[in-house]
Structure formats: structure tokens, C-alpha cells
Amino acid sequence: MDAEQQYVKELYGRLDAARDLADKRLKQAISWPAVDPQALQERDATVRFQTERVTALDAAEAGLCVGRIDRTEDGPLYIGRIGLAADDAGGDPALVDWRAPAARPFYTATPVHPLGLARRRHIRTRGRTVVRLDDEVLTGGVAGSSLTGEAALLDALDTARTGRMTDIVRTIQAEQDRIIRADDRGVLVVQGGPGTGKTAVALHRAAYLLYTHRERLARRGLLVVGPTPTFLRYIADVLPSLGETGVLLAGLGQLRPGLDARGAEAPEVAAVKGRLDMVEVLQAAVADRQVVPDAPREVLVDGFALRLRPIDVARAQNAARKAARLHNLARPEFARRVVDLLTRRYAERIGADVRGGANLLDREDLAALRREVAGETAVRVLVDDLWPVLTPERLLGDLFADPDRIARATPGWDDADRALLYRPGPPPTHPTPWTPADVPLLDEADELLGFDDSEQRARADRDRRRRLAEAQETLDVLHGSRSVDLEDEHLEAEVLSAGDLIDAEQLAERQRAADTRTTAERAAADRTWTFGHVVVDEAQELSPMAWRLLVRRCPTRSMTAVGDLAQTGSLAGASAWAETLEPHVGGAWRLEELTVNYRTPAEIMAVAADVLAAGGTGATAPASVRPGTAAPWAEVTGEAELAGRVAAATAELAGHEGTTAVVVPASRVAAVAAAVAGRVAGVSSGPDADSSAGPVVITPTEAKGLEFDSVLVVDPRGILDEGVRGHNDLYVALTRATQRLGVLSPGVLPEELARLA
Ligand SMILES: Nc1ncnc2c1ncn2[C@@H]1O[C@H](COP(=O)(O)OP(=O)(O)OP(=O)(O)O)[C@@H](O)[C@H]1O
């Protein structure tokens, strides 16, 4: 202990020195005079780099050193959160980053395959003090436990939860390490039961990839997608604790820049919206907005009624569709054709020679007429009627609010499915409550509509020309002042002027403000951004349309998707990985599995396994790594006593150290939350529920991916009956517990739970 304490103290000394240096460089960079835009840009880049460095060094403070490996051929190597160099340039580093190849045996060596190690030592620190060492001798050649650092692992698993997920750098297991360091090409699907560490593995893999492919991923960014904002809050500390801050975390409802879609809808509606044939529905809905009228339309221009026949409109539409594929980009061509035609009709009327000769108008007259027609409000209204400019929000809002539009866009659908899409428009003063299932549809609509940016481009062009003119003026002034100051012509010829070094174009370019946003910020604001890697958690919940969106954001298909088919709760979600992925990525995916449950004690897992088996999916529950300390229990009450019993049981559970959740069918959330709040402080429920403040009352869907020291499941029959995949929901609810589980059932206990005392 003393020897390790001494070494760890030295490591912290190095960390402090590295931090002081980074701090100094940061301060220096901030005070650099930004003499020109280029220097400003360089300064910003340095400030950003040094800020990230300081952040990473700060993050390494807690648990800097996680262990040590003693190699049979060489000396020991210490493993930690970051790499720290030794004093002698040629020697081993003082600390090896856990992600470096040299650290790998720390996680994967076994007595049977010692990988050149004699011993592995887990080091646990509190603050800067070493508090515990766990040694494994690896020279015996006899297989013991299949776990890496079993004592340290069990110690970590027994720790009370805080409501926020923590990293597992100290105790990553061999099967998890293999996935964390797997090649990043193609889609890697990680299937594993509850508590097998899928979320932990996905986040550590993100940190590993950022370390290994730093440059590429710093440029393109890494996206982590989770099911709900609550879940994202739960995992939000893990990557920063690993020193990685540049990652974009988003829920499915937040994948469209500027939109936070949290509207609720029936699972059947979300399922229909998630189907791949919505692509055709949206195509049909766009085509439906390119209208050919049944009868001729007339517009009044300066007192003349000008006529547009259906055939004229059809021809103009054809020409527009040939000019551009996307609706909004083709519209200017349509408008131009309509205006041309109306101008011709107009000219025929006013320029016709009464004696029957040629038209009396010349080209200039025609151009003037054209301007008149184009500027006429009635003409604009007509063009907008026949081919409106559409935003995705307008396309979708209009479609869902009108049963006739829905019917026209869904040939071959049955009326029940059509009725699911129908949503009366909100009152004009209310914003549309978009739901997460709408987000992939809005994104798809963007792809079909295109964005006519000709006006923006014209504005940008005008800006550029203005900057150019200003820059030229600046150079002229510099040149002018030189001529005045210098009288000797010979001398003048030898002095370089600003204009010799830089021309107006370059100067204008430099004056453009540099984009100082981080990669994650730029990516979050840009719908067309493509990421270097995408991590999807609870991937079983994603609908086919959501997969389509994500693949668009990651055309290289470098993705990690972790999930559990036995926990699928949404109707649109996956029941087989191949079926889900192949339409989007073909064969470019592979499957890895995790088999050990680190969260839930064996006694609780046995109950959950019965529920899973009764669900009839054929899936098997993962084996628990540890026995529990408290036996799970069930109690049958009457409906009338339920609220009181829930409150009393929650109070009892909340008396233990750690977090508590009450998991209930959606229909009971309000009543149960009120009953519990009458007895215990800090109760919260719904999407913003926060278990660090007190017990949370949540549905199985909201509980997905989370964990709590104590879990009380209320009305298991209700959970089975209310969910679209009721057994999966009850399985999720039961497997949230890390220590204690109770079940309260109003009426007979479902036979799936018969094992409970
Ligand atoms: N190697 C490990 N060392 C320490 N703790 C671990 C390890 N692996 C997993 N855990 C812990 O086990 C718990 C479950 O992990 P995680 O939430 O990642 O599982 P999951 O597979 O995503 O579960 P679910 O499917 O239920 O969402 C977490 O508390 C996690 O920190």
C-alpha cells in the first residue's frame, strides 16, 4: 500500500504539472494580440485545444490510476484515465491511457491466457489516497473465475447509485473490452440482456474511437443517440468523466436542428409513422401539392382576364420536373413558365394588330409586360396555389390535418391505418406538438422538398462584392498614403505596399468572421451534417424510418448500435436485427453479444427470467454475476389499500442508501405519484423525473436504460395489459433493480411472478 501510495502521489504530481502547463498555455493564447483575422483564427484554435486539454486533465483527477500490470519480461505498467510520460524519453510511460494497445492485457489477460503478465493489480483510490488493492496472480495456468478482477468488480457493483451513470474504466470485462476496441467499419450491433453493460460499453467505445481516430472524429464529430431526454441526462456524465466533451448527445426527438419534439401519441400511431412505406406516402403528398386544376383559371392583370388552361399547367409542371428533382428547387422553373405564358396571352391581347398583321410589341415592351405580370399579386397567388413553396412542417401539418390529402397519399392502405395518421391541426396560435416519430418524417420531407436558397446565395454574393469593394478601398487608401509620404521615387519603388502582398480578394476573405463553434455545435445546427461515427443506445426501439434518418447522417455506416430485442417496447421497434438493418445497410453489419448481467442480483433475475419466458419470444435472460442481499418480495392488496401500501413501501425502500423508483402502468402515474408524495420528500415523475432528489414514479418506457438501488413495481397485471409488448415492459421494470425489489399487486398476482415469496 505504501509503495503504491508513493507511486500514485508521483502520478498526481505529474498531472498537476501537466495541468499547470496547459493552464499557462491557455492563458498565453487568450492574451495573444489578434492583429489580423488569420491570427484570430489561430488563437481561437489554440484556445479551444488548450481548453480541451485542461478539461481532460481535470476529468482525470478522480481515479487517475486504475491499476497496474506486472509483465514477466519487462517491468510493471500503470494503467489510468490518461497517458502521462516518464522523465526519460526512452522508458515506459509513467501512466498508460486505458485505451492504448499496451493497456489491453489489463482487461483481457487470464491465467490460461496471461498475455505476458504475471500479475494484475486493481488500485482503488479515494481522492488522492490509495484505499484498496486487489491482486490476481496469472501464472498458475488454472482457470479460476471468468471475471477480470472479480473482487474489484463486485466491490464496484455493490456501490449505491447516485442517479447518474458512472464510468467503468477500472473494471471493464474481457467480453466488453473486445467490443469497445472492435474495428469501426460497418454497423456493429451489440445484443445483450438487461444490465450486461451495453450502455457502458457503447460510451467507452465512443471514448476509445475518439482516442484512436482523434483527427477524423474531431473533424466529423460523434453522435450518441438515446431514447429519451431522461436517459440522456442519466448518461451525460460518462464521456466527460473520460475526458471527452466534444460528443453530441441527442434523443430521437432532438435529431432535427431547432426542434425539440416531445409530443405524445398512441403507440399505434408512432408505429404507422415509423413504417418504411411512409417514404412513398411523403412522395405522393409532395406530388399532390403540384396541382393541375380541373378547369381553366383566370387572373386579372391590369383589367385583362388572362387564362391558364389545365394543359398549360401540366406542361409547365413537366418542364419544371425536368429542370430539378426536388419540389422547391423546381418551383422557380414552374413559376417562370407560367409567367411566360401569361405574358404571351397578355401581349396577344394588347399588342394585337387590329388589321391582322404581326404583333405590334417589341422586345422591350414584352419585357415590361413580363415584369408587370410577374409582379401581379394575383399571379403570385395562382402560382402558389398550383405549386406552393413547402417547408417539411407545412407539408406534414397539412397532410395529417386533412383526411382527403391522407387518402390521396396512401393508395392501397386500409382506412384504419389512414385514420391513425389523421391529426386535426392545432389552433392557429399554438405550435404543432411534434412527436419523436414525426422527426424522421420531417427529415425525409426535407430530402424531397429541397431548400431553395437562391435568395440567400444572391445575398451572400452581394455581401461578398461589398466586402471586395471595401477591401479595394482600404488598399487604395494605403497605396495613396504611401505616395504622399514618400517623395523619393527610387525609394518608393523599393518599399512593398500592402497591395503587393495581398490583393482585395484575399483581404475580403480574411475579413469574413471565422466560425468559432465546436464540431458538436456545428453538427447540432446542421441537418445535413454527416458524422464520423454514430452510437445508438436502446437501438431496438428505433423504427425503420428512424434508421433511415440515422444512416443518412452517417453515410459511411460506421455505427455502433446496442440494444436488447427482449426489451423492445415500441410497436415500430425491432424483433430481429437482420430484418431491421438489412434494408438500410445491406450486409454491412455484424453481431456481438454480451451475456453477463452486472446489475441485477440473481434472485431478482430469476423472477424476471420467468416473465421473459412467459412472453414467448424464445429469448433467454442473461446470468447474474452476483447474488443479492435482500430477497425480492410480492404483496397482494386490495385496490382501496393500494395507494397507502405503495406510499408505505416506498418510504421503507427510500430509507436505504441509494436511489428508488416506483414503476407503474402509465394510467397510474398521477395517482401513485400523489400518494407517494404525501409520505416521502423529493418525489418526481414524468420525463423530468430525477432520482438523485428522491423516489421517482415512472412507466416502464421511461425506466428503460435506467437503474435504481430499490425498485417497487406496482400493478404488474396493469403493466402486462397496458403495454403493446406487455411482457417486455414488465421484464424491463423488474430488471432495473441493483439491490432490492418489491411488487405490489392490487388483486391476484400474475402467475408469471409466482416465484416471488
Ligand atoms: N465491467 C463493469 N464494471 C463495473 N460495472 C459495470 C460493468 N459493466 C456493467 N456495469 C454496471 O452494470 C450496470 C448496467 O450497465 P448498463 O446500464 O450499461 O447495462 P445495459 O446493458 O445497458 O442495461 P439495459 O439493457 O437494462 O439498459 C451499470 O451500473 C454499469 O455501470
TrEMBL record:
GO terms for molecular function: 3'-5' DNA helicase activity; ATP binding; DNA binding; hydrolase activity. It comes from Geodermatophilus sabuli. SUPFAM superfamilies: P-loop containing nucleoside triphosphate hydrolases. This is AAA family ATPase. Keywords: ATP-binding, Helicase, Hydrolase, Nucleotide-binding. InterPro entries: (+)RNA_virus_helicase_core_dom, DNA_helicase_UvrD/REP, P-loop_NTPase, UvrD-like_ATP-bd. One of its GO terms (cellular component) is cytosol. Residues 171-601 form the UvrD-like helicase ATP-binding domain. GO terms for biological process: recombinational repair. It comes from the Bacteria. ATP binds at G192, G193, P194, G195, T196, G197, K198, T199.
